[in-house]
Amino acid sequence: MKMLPKLILSSLVLINLTYAKTLTEQQEESLVKGIIPSTKVAKVERSQIDGFYKAYLDNGNILYVNPFKRVIFIGELYTNTGVSLTANEREAWKSELNTKQIKDLKLKEIVQYAKKIDFNKGSKKYDFILFTDPECPFCARVEELFIKKDVSVYINFYPLSFHPHAEKWSKEILSAPNFKDAFLKLRETQKDLNIKITSQAEQTLKNMKSLGEKLNIMGTPKIFIVDKKENKIIDVIDGANLEKINSYLDKDKQ
């Protein structure tokens, strides 16, 4: 019986320490968010630099914030051997976001406005949902790869603001009587198609852009991989990662 008070006291100390740690983390997160109130911060962790915290953003980026000196650092942290710590952490964070996004995504929602193109014989096992900008050079690399393969692609246009022709070209392709022909012609020429833009194309592009914003897409290309047998999204590819795209194209042949 004499041991009971000691056990109770130890438990209380442990509970208090755990609570104190949680409270400290909450205070730190609150301090960081207070420095950048208009920025959506998903989580906060202490960084490798004393006094700085890593603010993980919903768009996949990482900021370094010192709430005590009210300083924000935007850039890369490198080791003395030239390895970017920021790049590794950013990729891990994007992977975490993509995993969560896949769980929440409904296939029907993400293809509801898309235009499907079957290149050559089309896909057997995997479809690709592509968010693209017709003026984006990285999108061009992906699309040129698709054109040579047997693959089915759902196209969602997501013109970026710094590409002056992207919005008009998206609308022209959507207004064309043959979507695939117009898509391929503009990809090849990178010139106006001189097609009258329809009100339906205007609305479709508006819907595609709204969907991209809802999915928090910050750049193109963005690709979602669909398992046709399971009828669900199984992976997300950011950027022109041709190696990863080819891995699915190769598996599609098997």
From TrEMBL:
The keyword Isomerase does not apply. Pfam families: DsbC_N, Thioredoxin_2. InterPro entries: DiS-bond_Isoase_DsbC/G (IPR033954), DiS-bond_isomerase_DsbC/G_N (IPR018950), DiS-bond_isomerase_DsbC/G_N_sf (IPR009094), GLR_AS (IPR011767), Thiol:disulfide_interchange (IPR051470), Thioredoxin-like_fold (IPR012336), Thioredoxin-like_sf (IPR036249). The keyword Signal applies. Residues 32-87 form the Disulphide bond isomerase DsbC/G N-terminal domain. GO terms for cellular component: periplasmic space. It is found in: Periplasm. This is DsbC family protein. It comes from Campylobacter coli.
